[in-house]
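Researcher: We plan to redesign the surface later, but first we want a full-length starting point. Tokens attached.
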């Protein structure tokens, strides 16, 4: 979920408050969206083709929240950003593969879980890091870079780890990520640079636009696999909780192990454990099946719930 990025830990702007409210309400919104898709699947027949365009809206919103300062942050701390990037694209894909084998998931679900792990950082991770009193600048830098390199990293990782379950067309997947992620992000960044004065007024609305759009994506994904959810829901939920929980823990552990400090370790936890599940759902629907998108839909709900709870705990511990 795209949110206005908190730039300073001490300031409490209207955008920050809007982002916090959106993060809090977002899981409820997505649960409602999933329930609608489950109860009224016939109402969304044929909507699957709209998912990439809906994701493009979310990524455009993310691009609008970016500023040149985000890229200067990468240049100022290349070691920490590189560490976060490697941790993200090693830990989560590896966990996805291991969990698929451990739980002996059916091929479609296994490929879906692995694809979630191979996606870039979740776009709500920055605000959750802020709520946890973590290193927001590092969080923004890692999320930005992981999104920009996704066309080069996500398809080959998916082929490597999920290729044993289902055929993976890496060339087509690269094209889809470029169209639904990179181009909308760059377009949003261009709008921010060219019309920053006008965009600033709209920033508090962006979390809500992204939340509603992701809610529609979840509705469409759940409706497409409604028949299979009753038999697979518990198994998928276990896989998602393990994937997200271990990702948060190992991300935090990677920061502590490399002595980045407590605030940076908190940022690492959320940059590793929170995924761009909207992208995973879009790619799974386009390249595998609606059933393969189910783990991404469940992850979209759960990682915001667990992220908010972890942030609250870490914030209290920090005080």
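Model: Full-length starting sequence:
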């Amino acid at each position: 979920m795209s949110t206005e990025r908190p730039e300073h830990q001490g300031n409490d702007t209207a955008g920050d408050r809007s982002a916090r409210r959106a993060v809090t309400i977002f899981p409820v919104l997505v649960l409602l969206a999933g329930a609608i898709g489950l109860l009224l699947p016939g109402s969304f027949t044929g909507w699957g083709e709209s998912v990439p365009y809906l994701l493009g809206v979310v990524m455009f919103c993310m691009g609008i929240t970016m500023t040149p300062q985000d890229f200067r942050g990468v240049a100022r701390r290349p070691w920490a950003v590189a560490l976060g990037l490697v941790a993200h694209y090693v830990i989560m894909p590896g966990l996805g593969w291991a969990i698929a084998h451990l739980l002996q998931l059916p091929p479609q679900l296994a490929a879906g879980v692995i694809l979630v792990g191979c996606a870039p950082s979740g776009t709500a991770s920055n605000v959750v890091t802020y709520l946890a009193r973590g290193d927001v600048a590092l969080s923004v830098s890692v999320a930005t870079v992981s999104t920009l390199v996704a066309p080069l990293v996500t398809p080959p990782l998916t082929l490597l780890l999920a290729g044993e379950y289902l055929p993976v067309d890496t060339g087509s997947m690269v094209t889809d990520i470029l169209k639904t992620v990179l181009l909308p992000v760059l377009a949003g960044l261009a709008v921010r640079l060219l019309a920053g004065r006008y965009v600033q007024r709209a920033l508090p609305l962006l979390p809500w636009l992204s939340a509603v759009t992701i809610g529609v994506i979840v509705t469409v994904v759940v409706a497409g696999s409604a028949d299979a959810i009753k038999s697979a829901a518990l198994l998928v939920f276990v896989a998602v909780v393990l994937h997200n929980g271990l990702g948060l823990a190992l991300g935090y552990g990677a920061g502590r192990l490399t002595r980045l400090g407590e605030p940076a370790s908190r940022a690492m936890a959320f940059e590793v454990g929170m995924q761009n599940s909207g992208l995973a759902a879009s790619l799974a629907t386009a390249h595998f099946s609606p059933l393969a998108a189910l783990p991404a839909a469940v992850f979209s709900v759960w990682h915001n719930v667990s992220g908010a709870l972890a942030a609250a705990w870490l914030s209290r511990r920090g005080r």
